[in-house]
Amino acid sequence: GENVEQHPSTLSVQEGDSAVIKCTYSDSASNYFPWYKQELGKGPQLIIDIRSNVGEKKDQRIAVTLNKTAKHFSLHITETQPEDSAVYFCAATIGGSQGNLIFGKGTKLSVKP
Amino acid sequence: DVKVTQSSRYLVKRTGEKVFLECVQDMDHENMFWYRQDPGLGLRLIYFSYDVKMKEKGDIPEGYSVSREKKERFSLILESASTNQTSMYLCASSWGTSGYEQYFGPGTRLTVT
Question: Which residues of B fall within a CB distance of 8 Å from A41?
Fold first, then answer.
């Protein structure tokens, strides 16, 4: 079946450094790629997303890049802060579905002060 | 703001009990989803619904059923709870065919003893 691979599973950075999380997907019909942040005790919250007709999108310290040919997309967080510490999930739509998403297994990001 | 609420944050049930998890969204979304979240496994889709009285199986439907009698409410039912159903359960909703962003509730942590 279709799947999304996410790496690394854990990531520790120093405050102010950059963090990069990478995902690859298998379904060539996927056309929407969201990133979710889940803080302790809360449900996942969308932080940024990208559609297949765009190669890069940026929102303040967060950016996402998409390489459709290679079927991979990445989340970039610059100038990390302790409040960025959370679990991050990437996802991709399942082709032919009404927006069903398949999720990566998550990356636990720790930002050390 | 979109709001997705779940009936309980924490629930403890005994093996064999029938368990109901309720989810309500206030944005008139057509699509609703139930996920299960386990450490190291990410989010796995149990059931989803595109419309009232409509339901489709996700990746792991065994041992679960759902009900959607009203557009805003989607219920997950464990007919006979088992210890391997101890998990975090997340509900989400989204717009119709073109709105892929899923909005999540805070989750219900279910423990079956």
Answer: 106
Q: How far is A59 from chain B (nearest CA, A)?
A: 17
Instruction: State the best of A51, A100, A103 to mutate against chain B, taking most chain B CBs within 10 Å.
Output: A100
Q: What's the mean per-residue pLDDT of chain A?
A: 93
**Is the distance from CB of A39 to CB of A54 less than 8 angstroms?**
no
Give me the mean pLDDT over the A41-52 stretch: 92
Q: Which structure tokens are listed for B97?
A: 């065919």
SS (H, E, C) A8-49: CCEEEEECCCCEEEEEEECCCCCCEEEEEEECCCCCCEEEEE
Q: In three state form, how does the secondary structure of A54-75 look?
A: CCEEEECCEEEEEECCCCEEEE
pLDDT in tens, B34-47: 999 998 899 999 99
